[in-house]
Design goal:
Blueprint (H helix, E strand, L loop, with lengths): L3 E3 L1 E4 L2 E8 L15 H25 L3 H15 L1 H12 L4 H19 L1 H5 L1 H15 L14 E5 L4 H5 L6 E6 L7 H8 L4 E3 L12 E5 L4 E4 L31 E6 L12 E6 L13 H13 L5 E5 L34 H16 L4 E6 L5 H13 L5 E5 L2 H5 L1 H4 L5 E4 L1 H8 L18 H17 L3 E3 L7 H10 L3 E4 L4 H9 L3 H13 L3 H10 L1
Parallel strand pairs: 3-4, 4-5, 5-6, 9-10, 9-16, 10-11, 11-12, 12-13, 13-14, 14-15, 15-16
Antiparallel strand pairs: 1-8, 2-6, 3-7, 7-8
Helix pairs in contact: 1-2, 1-3, 1-4, 1-6, 3-4, 4-6, 9-10, 16-17, 16-18, 18-19
The structure holds phosphoenolpyruvate (PEP) and magnesium ion (MG).
Length: 541
């Protein structure tokens, strides 16, 4: 196999270690007739019991409460009496143990989906449960993070959310996936944990277990079979200045460096000026019922308390599509990414948005943080105006919207007449501009933030902001790429929000260039024919 594999750098940094692959889900063998039904039922029960024990053990050892909650719910499904009864019946009807388990769990899955709500949200847990019980029946390794006894580089097609939630930086040095994109949730979680990650890496699955690899998550390269030092071109972390966390170009032009977070814990040790994107939906992703006002006030207050005197931009719930919330799920949507997601949920459930805004306002009143609020998936000026009115009525003075839909980008000047700021969500803006699912590895080239069409839309928004003196930030994952951050600063973007571990490299890149150089880089990138030419033009500068 080649000793250099290329993919997309999805989380910066470099790490070297032995590679180990996440086991594939087991395949069912061709069915054979059952000769001893009792023995076959025992085989199925033994597999179910082993899986229950394994999941229970994983729930007990994880320090991550979200992951523990997912695992406990899964253990309860495995222990359900109806699973055993159904499997026994299926075996006696002539199905071997693994086939019986798969058939019964397929029925349970259909029933959960039909029931909706929290039960429907557990359908994915059932798929994982099926894989585990089938693997045990067949004597195959259970799908799980490898346990080689030393820190390792994880190789996978992609990671299920439950696997991604369990990534422990003490065990996993880096992640390489053959599928996925820069904005898939594997990539976002890896960035939040500071794990160097390369996604959409062809050939990754051919790396034999135990082979030493070096993962360069900045350049999107995996060196196979030999140890190489961390790349020289990676900018060294900037010396921290606790008294002044402001991002600046070499000649002192301020570009605010902010954090993307899903909860207060992600701010621990973050050297940022504030929070540019608080993804509130991540707090409530396992809730059956909408969170109460009191529950929300507590969650928001925890983040505000970590940022006294600093800016915190709270995004209202971005539910739907790839981030379904059990209490807002609609199973009949034919095309969820183009359906009722983000602010559009308020068309059906205005009460949920009102409760959230009231909770943000209450928590803001009790804090010294400079709280702003913004809405996701805004498409028109009138949606922006309605959102602003709602927030101002609730006593929240600073209101913005995300620019994630091309229609909003082309009307950014008009939207800025009714809001205080814009925040460009490049993950979704790429998805909708290029009609390419943000989770698709195969379309990763279209989702490349250096695509000239995306740059043109960002330039349009930044110019609209500059014309009226209102801030226009970027909070999509692209802001974490140091070279791209220089381009964004040159386009006139006023803040960059990213996973906290990415901040030092972006700070260093800005500090190494004057505003004029950033502008020149932006012009070169805008003039380039494609992403590769844009990168090359900026690198040459
Ligand atoms: C985006 O779309 O760029 C964004 C920041 O929002 P999310 O990734 O949460 O959809
Ligand atoms: Mg988005």
């Amino acid at each position: 196999m080649p000793d250099l594999l290329r993919g997309l750098g999805a989380s910066a940094g470099a790490a070297t270690g032995p590679a180990y692959r996440l086991a594939d889900p087991p395949r069912l063998p061709a069915p054979r007739p059952v000769t001893d039904p009792d023995a076959e039922v025992d085989r199925a029960y033994a597999a179910i019991d082993a899986v229950c024990r394994d999941i229970g053990r994983r729930a007990a050892v994880t320090a991550d409460e979200t992951a523990a909650e997912i695992l406990r719910a899964q253990a309860a499904l495995a222990a359900d009496r109806t699973l055993r009864d159904g499997v026994a019946l299926a075996v006696r009807a002539g199905h071997e143990a693994p086939h019986a388990v798969a058939a019964v769990l397929a029925d349970h899955r259909a029933a959960l989906l039909a029931a909706g709500g929290l039960l429907a949200a557990r359908a994915a847990d059932l798929d994982d449960l099926r894989d585990r019980v089938v693997a045990h029946c067949l004597g195959l390794p259970m799908p799980a993070l490898p346990e080689p006894g030393c820190p390792f580089v994880l190789i996978a097609v992609d990671l299920a959310p439950a696997d991604a939630a369990l990534l422990d930086p003490a065990r996993v040095l880096a992640v390489v996936t053959s599928a996925g994109s820069f904005v898939s949730h594997t990539a976002i979680l890896a960035r939040a944990r500071g794990l160097p990650t390369v996604v959409a890496c062809g050939g990754a699955l051919e790396i034999a277990d135990g082979t030493v690899v070096t993962v360069d998550g900045t350049a999107g390269r995996v060196t196979v079979g030999r140890t190489v030092p961390a790349p020289a071109e990676e900018p060294p972390p900037a010396p921290e200045e606790p008294a002044d966390l402001r991002g600046r170009t070499a000649d002192g032009h301020h570009v605010a460096l902010l954090a993307n977070i899903g909860c207060a814990a992600e701010l621990a040790g973050a050297a940022v000026e504030g929070v540019g994107l608080f993804r509130t939906e991540l707090l409530f992703q396992h809730h059956i019922d909408p969170p109460t006002t009191a529950e929300q006030i507590d969650a928001y207050a925890e983040v505000f308390a970590a940022m006294p005197g600093r800016q915190v931009i709270v995004r209202t719930l971005d539910a739907g599509a790839d981030k379904p919330l059990p209490f807002l799920r609609d199973h009949d949507e034919p095309n969820p990414a183009l359906g009722i997601r983000g602010l559009r949920v308020a068309r059906r459930r205005a009460d949920i948005l009102r409760t959230q805004i009231a909770a943000i306002a209450a928590a803001a009143r009790a804090s010294t943080a400079r709280v702003a609020v913004m809405a996701p998936m805004v498409t028109t000026v009138s949606e922006a105006a309605q959102f602003t009115a709602l927030c101002r009525d609730a006593g929240l003075p600073t209101v913005g919207v995300m620019i994630e839909v091309p229609a909003a980008a082309v009307r950014s000047a008009e939207i800025l007449q009714v809001v205080d700021f814009l925040s460009v969500g490049t993950n979704d803006l790429s998805q909708y501009t290029f009609a390419a699912d943000r989770r698709s590895g195969e379309l990763a080239d279209l989702l490349d933030p250096w695509q000239p069409a995306l740059l043109s839309l960002i330039a349009l928004c930044a110019a609209a902001g500059a014309a009226v003196g209102r801030p226009v930030g970027v909070c999509g994952e692209a802001a974490a790429d140091p070279a791209f951050a220089v381009v964004l600063a040159g386009l006139g973007v006023t803040s960059l929000s990213m996973s906290p571990p990415a901040v030092p490299a972006v700070r260093a890149a800005l500090a190494a260039h004057t505003l004029e150089e950033c502008r020149a880089a932006a012009q070169r990138a805008l003039a380039a024919a494609d992403p590769a030419a844009a990168r090359a033009a900026v690198t040459r500068l």
